[in-house]
Amino acid sequence: MHAPDLRTLTIVPPQGPLRGRVMPPGSKSITNRALLVAGLATGTSRLSGALKSDDTRYMAQALRAMGVNVDEPDDTTFVVTGDGRLRAPAAPLFLGNAGTATRFLTAAAALVEGAVVIDGDEHMRKRPIAPLVAALASLGVVVEAPSGCPPVTVAGRGAFPAGRVEIDGGLSSQYVSALLMAAACGEGPVEIALTGSEIGARGYIDLTLASMRAFGADVEQTDAATWRVRPTGYRASDLLIEPDASAATYLWAAEVLTGGAIDLGVAADAFTQPDARAYAHIAAFPHLPAVIDGAQMQDAVPTLAVLAAFNATPVRFTGIANLRVKECDRVAALAQGLCRIRPGLGTEEGDDLLVASDPTLAGQRLPAEIDSFADHRIAMSFALAGLRIAGITILDPACVGKTYPGYWRALASLGVRYEGEAP
Ligand SMILES: O=C(O)C1=C[C@@H](OP(=O)(O)O)[C@@H](O)[C@H](O)C1
Ligand SMILES: C=C(OP(=O)(O)O)C(=O)O
């Protein structure tokens, strides 16, 4: 019943607390970083605990198309063998709606000798990449993206130019991560400096630095907004990838919403990913703070916003302007979904989201069709509302395959049923 090819999924609220053990899949962010840097290394790297999902499949396929050998001996392992070079792919690299793969490979394409076209689906084609393109061009890379979004064409000349590059990471920290990772394969040292406003997602830069260092890169922060990357290239390495913190937020929220006990097999403070910061808020439920700054836990905002609907008091989400350029406009999608459940439950105020909150929602039957906008996080977070409200239907439930293909099965393993499914 919870097969991912269904067009809609209506959740039956469980009768009691959810209990059991569910391990979230491997981190998307770390898997796609590790795949890239392992692909740039010389030798064989074994990545275990990895995520297998749409986003990581696109990265793996793109690397294969550029001559890297990527084997998949089991459901959670990639074995990557490279020779320190990327070759020109025969066809455009299609990366679906994987922001990490698209941004990271745009910078890495400069390492190819020849043309690389980086493209994605209709959603990716609306996600801005102009700041990264401008930064690469300023270093002398021949690159263009006429619409400011993919497709991007890079005419690589086999090396990443040395020098200093400035980048505005305000719209996406992935631009900065992309430059950092490619820079280790520079012709000489590369200095990467942030301009513009402070980037929201510093934690993702830390993840990038950790992945680079795990594969032998030499990168140092020279001041609050500048990194210097030495031209070491990468050394093949084995890596155990931690579970995905963003995926964990749904399980933490399911636990507090149902008063249950879900063992994730990993403590909240063991994560190195930014979204693990959401745990402290989730653990405070139903007393979430009046204002949550989502900047440092961006992908957890949909989870927190749906949880906030059941909170004792209203919650305002700030620092979330760049949620408008994720897989969909998440600020608008969250407001719309919340209002489908009950008019006025979610309101956009500028770029803030105000969740009115109403603990009496729990236990009611409020049939609502939630448009996922092809966004895995919208689908997964509104499923949480379905744990306490009868009649919540998620449209396009298969979109969870972007980062958590086993999500519906994971909830089912905890005792959640879907309408039409035998009890
Ligand atoms: O670097 C990463 O792995 C990510 C950075 C964040 O995106 P932005 O930097 O575009 O905000 C986050 O939303 C995305 O899911 C993963
Ligand atoms: C924003 C996300 O993904 P990406 O930018 O990697 O496509 C996400 O997974 O929530």
Task: Characterize the structure shown.
The chain has 423 residues and is α/β, with parallel strands linked by helices. The protein folds into two domains: 8-25 and 243-418, Enolpyruvate transferase domain (UDP-n-acetylglucosamine1-carboxyvinyl-transferase, Chain, Alpha-beta prism), CATH 3.65.10.10; 28-240, Alpha-beta prism (UDP-n-acetylglucosamine1-carboxyvinyl-transferase, Chain). It is 29% helix and 24% strand. It has a four-stranded mixed sheet with strand order 20-21-1-22. The chain has a four-stranded mixed sheet with strand order 4-5-3-14, with helices on one face. Bound molecules: shikimate-3-phosphate and phosphoenolpyruvate.
Give the secondary structure arrangement, pairings included.
Blueprint lengths: L7 E5 L6 E3 L6 H13 L1 E7 L5 H12 L3 E6 L2 E7 L9 E2 L4 H10 L4 E7 L10 H9 L3 E3 L7 E6 L5 E6 L5 H10 L6 E6 L6 H13 L4 E5 L2 E4 L9 E2 L4 H14 L2 E3 L14 H6 L7 E3 L7 H8 L6 E4 L11 H12 L4 E4 L2 E4 L9 E6 L5 H10 L4 E6 L11 H7 L3 E2 L5
Parallel strand pairs: 2-15, 3-14, 6-7, 10-11, 16-17, 20-21
Antiparallel strand pairs: 1-21, 1-22, 3-5, 4-5, 7-9, 8-9, 11-13, 12-13, 17-19, 18-19
Helix pairs in contact: 1-2, 1-3, 1-6, 2-3, 3-5, 5-6, 9-11
The structure holds shikimate-3-phosphate and phosphoenolpyruvate.
Phosphoenolpyruvate (PEP) binds next to helix 3.
